[in-house]
Amino acid sequence: MSFNSKKQLSFGDLYEQAKDWAKNDKPQFLEMLNQYLNLSEFFPSSFYSAYYNYFGRNRTYSLESMLSAFILQKTLGIPTLVLLVKVYAFAYKSMPSSAQVNNEIKQLYINGHFCYVYKAVIVNNGHGAIRHISFFGDEFKDNHPEVPVEKKSDSPDEDKSIGDSTSLKPVLEDYFNLYNHHYSSFITDSAFDNYQTYPFLIKDFGFDKAVIPLNSRNTNSDLLQPKYNENGWPLCPKDSSLPMKPNSWCRGKNRSPRFKFVCPKTNHKGGKRNCYC
Predict the structure, then answer these.
(1) Between the CA of residue 11 and those of 14, 16, 17, 32, 37, what are the distances in Å?
(2) Are 108 and 160 in contact (CB under 8 A)?
(3) Which of 92, 123, 143 is the last residue of a domain?
(4) How far apart are CA 169 and CA 200, in angstroms?
(5) What tens digit of pLDDT does each residue of 30-42 get?
């Protein structure tokens, strides 16, 4: 039976079909839920408010995605969410790294979906015009053996970040070997946020500055994270009513220049900086 059939169906027919899929065809059941069930329509505004007031609005996963994970767990009969994550990691690790029809078509994890694609990098200028395309084929791999082409971990997000960040330098090397251009600023997404990226962008390729959002994988989750006011000024992690004070530039040997902020209630005592907020 199909929900798109021209036959007039009763609610009982729909229920029996859904129950049969849930028992005997779980992929079809999950596809049906994904197509026809909009979880947000079932949540009163008070539930949304309670959830985000308790956990904070800046969350990696939305309320809908969390509940979808619970539904998936229960549908597949997996006893805990921890085990669900392990099953997910095992499935990723077990999938082949490349397509059978073409070894250059690699497995990727994009926007929450597994896929097999012929990977390429596009370099744009500040106006969005495409200036260069690097295809990650055999020639690129032969010229740059340092770029990983196989899965290195059980985490698709981690592998994607590693692949993106390590491919940046060879792509730029190829670009500047072809074109005698100079750019003042380099802008990219958080996948390229790692300590090694900033020095070679400034020193090797002559950018004046690099604008890269922070990646959560590089953040110590045990530390309190500052919020920012409407002007982008950092606020004290312990008291968001207190804007941080500019402290100084930090320019260590072989390190990227950093501008430091400190809490306004910080003072020095015994040679150490102490915060009293």
Answers:
(1) 5, 9, 10, 15, 15
(2) yes
(3) 92
(4) 8
(5) 788 878 878 777 7
